[in-house]
Amino acid sequence: MTVETGQMAPDFALYDGDGNLVKLSEMKGAPVIVAFFPAAFTGVCETELCTFRDSMSAFDDMGAKVVGISVDSRFANAAFAAANNLSFPILSDYNREAIKSWDLVFPDLAGMPGYDVARRSVYVIDADGKVAWCWLSDSPGDEPPYEEVKQAAGALTQAS
């Protein structure tokens, strides 16, 4: 069942581009924006993650953390982050455990049987680890409503 607003966010332990294990449970105490995206080095994914990059000062002002998650290897994600000057972690769900536990498997990307990736989605997690806001797309070509993400994260900051 897909994770929804009001539910506790399932924990994950995923590697960043430097090989560090990043756990959602260790980010409690601050809002966290979790952006699942299908594939590094693709047009819409690059636009999405660069838009989050360009909003980092606003997220920093809110005390919010941002992480991106794809099924790409940590090496590909590191190259993607470097090429796009991303200042937040891009995590590798190479074994697809996170997208399965969050029920975000997008099967057969680009008509390639067996190439299951993350369904494009964004979650705003509150300081206690509960989903405060979410957006999910059925199309890898959709971009999230960026202003709504900022508003949801900002509402958490104002509530505390």
Instruction: Give the helix level as a range of percent.
Output: 25-40%
Instruction: Name the CATH homologous superfamily.
Output: Glutaredoxin
**Biggest sheet, spatial arrangement of strands:** 5-4-3-8-9
Could you tell me the CATH topology label: Glutaredoxin
Radius of gyration (CA) equals 14 Å
The largest β sheet comes out as: 5 strands, mixed
Strand segment count: 9
Describe this protein's structure.
The chain has a single domain, classed as Glutaredoxin (3-Layer(aba) Sandwich). The protein has five helices and nine strands; from the N terminus they run βββααβαβαββββα. It is globular, with a radius of gyration of 14 Å. The model has no long low-confidence stretch (mean pLDDT 96). By secondary structure, the protein is an alpha/beta fold. The strands form three sheets. Strands 5-4-3-8-9 form a five-stranded mixed β-sheet. It has a two-stranded antiparallel sheet with strand order 1-2. The protein has a two-stranded antiparallel sheet with strand order 6-7. The termini are far apart.
Give keywords.
160 residues, alpha/beta, Glutaredoxin, 5-stranded mixed sheet, two-stranded antiparallel sheet, 5 helices, 9 strands
Task: Give a brief rundown of this model.
The chain is of the alpha/beta class.
